[in-house]
Amino acid sequence: MTNILISGGSVAGLTLAHWLRQYGFTPTVVERAPEVREGGYKIDIRGAALDVVGRMGLLDEVRRHSTDMRVARFVDARGRQVATMSAEAFGGREGDDVEIMRGDLVRILRAAAEDGVEYVFGDSIAALDQTPEGVRVTFESGPPRTFDLVAGADGLHSNVRGLAFGEESRFVRDLGHHISIFTVPNHLGLDRTEMMHPAPGRSAGMYGTRRDADARAMFLFSSPPGAGDGRDVTRQKKLLAEVFAGQGWDVPRLLGAMWDAPDFYFDSISQVRMDHWSTGRVALVGDAAYGPSPASGQGTSLALVGAYVLAGCLAAAAGDHAAGFAAYEREMRHFAEENQKLAAANMKGMVLGSATRIRFQMLMLRLMPHLPGKDRMIERVTGPIRRAATAITIRDYRVPSA
């Protein structure tokens, strides 16, 4: 029975653990945090990823935890409404697409990857030593162990990728913007509503879902010189405060709440581009291998599908990990690239460079419901997302009999 170590206990790692167990592997998940991280922001599940969730028997549960968002409202510096959109149009969703809070999805996946999965919390991989027989793993605090295979499902700043493939700068491409999200008191009483205040080169927002008493603040901005993506949280907060200093609406209040936020998140909006996702007995999945960036809206879907395909290809390869990894890359490459293409176009509409462009966009949003070609305009937004989200056929993996 093949023992596989998975680094990272988020969407990709938990999904991979579930499917590996289904195919008879013995998965171990190591997670740096003391428990699976359940916080986070709204995420979308579309196309092929819905098929994966359905095959896990989790689709009804996921739909029960839908954010049920209703509307997005755009406001000026005084808080006056200047335009609105349906929540579906704002998120580029259509049909069966589901929006869910990341924490809810992680809890659902953890419950599905419980039996037969070992979890090691509060630890991380310090070194990998590959041999013909396996991978000797040195942990930061636990005793060394040997596994047959190692999977890096540990996100944009993947520790496994750094140890097995090299420096992050070789693979992570900064798209010229930063994002920050954190929990704030819902002082506006938002009920399934998103508020957005655009300004040249930066955009601030706040939303409240049907399930949360609190709200989330979100900030997007063009990266200033020297912004970097360092791990110094105090420096990150100071930078965010400087970038959004003087912006109107409720931005000062949101920035004030930032200092005590329990779940402050700040990072560059970046993609991961790699020529190959495996080396020897080590493979990458999800953001670690082909992170499309938050601008794509497809990171979660790629993680779900990638984990399913990797587990299936390993099972179908009947113990030949090299063949399994190669099949995984063949099946996932086009899907990953098509979804990564979404980011550049989406980013242009998320952070506008001038007041003129903002006024024009708000005008178009106000006029859209009354224009004869409104359906074609919406299709220009949702069509590329739908095509990318379905750019792979989810197949059954028949495991060869012994």
CATH architecture level-2 label of the domain at 3-39 and 104-172 and 272-344: 3-Layer(bba) Sandwich
Side by side, the strands of the main sheet go: 5-4-13-14-15-12-16
Which CATH first-tier class of the domain at 3-39 and 104-172 and 272-344 would you pick? Alpha Beta
Please estimate the helix content.
Answer: 25-40%
The CATH topology name of the domain at 3-39 and 104-172 and 272-344 reads: FAD/NAD(P)-binding domain
Could you explain how this protein is built, in words?
InterPro entries: FAD-bd, FAD/NAD-bd_sf, FAD_aromatic-hydroxylase. One of its GO terms (molecular function) is FAD binding. This is FAD-dependent oxidoreductase. The structure is a single chain. By secondary structure, the chain is of the alpha/beta class. Helices cover 37% and strands 25% of the residues. The protein has a domain at 3-39 and 104-172 and 272-344: FAD/NAD(P)-binding domain, CATH 3.50.50. It has helices at residues 11-22, 47-55, 59-64, 87-91, 102-112, 159-164, 233-243, 251-258, 287-290, 299-316, 321-340, 342-350, 355-367, 374-389; strands at 3-7, 26-31, 42-45, 71-75, 81-86, 98-101, 118-121, 125-130, 135-139, 145-147, 149-152, 172-184, 193-199, 202-208, 215-222, 265-272, 278-279, 282-284. It is globular, with a radius of gyration of 21 Å. It starts with a strand and ends in a 13-residue tail after the last helix.
